[in-house]
Specification:
With 117 residues, this protein is mainly alpha-helical. It is 84% helix and 0% strand. The chain has one domain (2-112). Helix 2 packs parallel to helix 5 (64-82) and helix 5 packs antiparallel against helix 6. The longest helix has 27 residues, at 86-112.
C-alpha cells in the first residue's frame, strides 16, 4: 500500500509542477515536455533522480522526467558495459519498449477512431 501511495504522491507532484508551469508562465505544453525530459536527464546524470525512482517507483518513471532518466541511465550503463559505442546504443536500448508501445498504440488509435472536424 505504501508503494502505491508514494507513486501517487511523487507522480502527482511532478504533474502539479507541470501544470503550474503551464498556468503561471508563458511556457507551452511542448516547452514543458522538453524541459521535463531534459531535467530528468540532467538529474539522472548527477545521480539525483535515482533516489526519487527508488522512493516513488512508477510515479517517478512514468512521467516525462522518467523518460530523460531512462535515456541517460541507459547510456551510462552501456558506456560502462561497451565503452564508446555505448553512447549510441544505451539510450535506444533503454527506451525501445516505451517508444515502440507509443508508436503501436498511436497507430491503433489512428486507425480505430475517426477524428472530428
Amino acid at each position: 500500500m505504501q508503494t502505491y501511495l508514494m507513486a501517487f504522491i511523487i507522480g502527482g507532484l511532478i504533474c502539479i509542477i507541470g501544470q503550474l508551469l503551464m498556468d503561471l508562465t508563458p511556457l507551452t505544453p511542448a516547452h514543458v515536455l522538453v524541459l521535463f525530459v531534459v531535467l530528468g536527464g540532467i538529474l539522472s546524470g548527477l545521480g539525483l533522480y535515482q533516489p526519487l525512482v527508488e522512493m516513488g517507483g512508477a510515479g517517478a518513471t512514468v512521467p516525462l522526467p522518467g523518460f530523460g532518466h531512462s535515456l541517460v541511465s541507459g547510456t551510462i550503463e552501456d558506456i560502462n558495459k561497451y565503452g564508446f559505442t555505448g553512447i549510441f546504443s544505451g539510450a535506444l536500448r533503454a527506451t525501445a519498449t516505451g517508444i515502440t508501445a507509443a508508436v503501436v498504440f498511436g497507430f491503433l488509435a489512428a486507425v480505430t477512431f475517426k477524428p472530428k472536424g
